[in-house]
Design brief:
single chain; alpha/beta; 4 helices; 169 residues; 7-stranded mixed beta sheet
């Protein structure tokens, strides 16, 4: 599944929409270059799950846990990880045993220690905006993708970039 998002506000809105479809336990990998909006998308998911307040990027702390009304979300950013074995120091094995949504940035840096994802979102720069490529690797991830497809696209999310005729002058 692919989605084109014209701006950061649309990326936040997509995250809010995605949040409504997430089960209590899911591992979601976020892939993409620096600045593509992995943390922006996570902020949207957090807002969609009812989080109010700051949503910090865990670039330096590696892990930011969020206790929400009806679930837990763990935001993991492995950009600065030197070795995948460092994840053991975070107590990752114990944390993964709990029901939680995991949003993992730079998952390739945790290869061999991280469990496989249910869902992967690859974010790429587009001519304007961002292109998201979503893929599922488990029945749980497939159910989220199917629900995302079934609920249609909100006005802020389009499958293709705007044409000149779509832009109000």
């Amino acid at each position: 599944m692919e989605q084109w998002l014209p701006d950061p506000e649309a990326q936040l809105a997509f995250g809010v929409r995605l949040a409504t479809l997430l089960p209590p336990r899911l591992i979601l990998y976020l892939e993409g270059d620096l600045g593509t909006g992995k943390t922006t998308l996570t902020r949207g998911v957090l807002a969609g799950l009812g989080h109010r307040g700051a949503a910090r990027s865990p670039t330096y702390t590696l892990l930011e846990p969020y206790e929400l009304a009806d679930r837990r979300l763990n935001h993991l950013d492995l950009y600065r990880l030197g070795d995948p074995q460092e994840l053991e120091y975070l107590g990752l094995r114990d944390l993964l045993a709990e029901d939680a949504v995991w949003m993992v940035e730079w998952p390739e840096r945790g290869r061999g220690v991280l469990p496989p994802p249910d869902l992967t979102i690859a974010i790429e720069y587009a001519t304007s905006g961002r292109r998201l490529r979503l893929s599922a690797t488990t029945p749980t991830g497939e159910a989220v993708l199917e629900a995302l497809t079934d609920c249609g696209s909100p006005a802020a999310v389009r499958s293709e970039p705007l044409e000149k005729s779509d832009v109000i002058q």
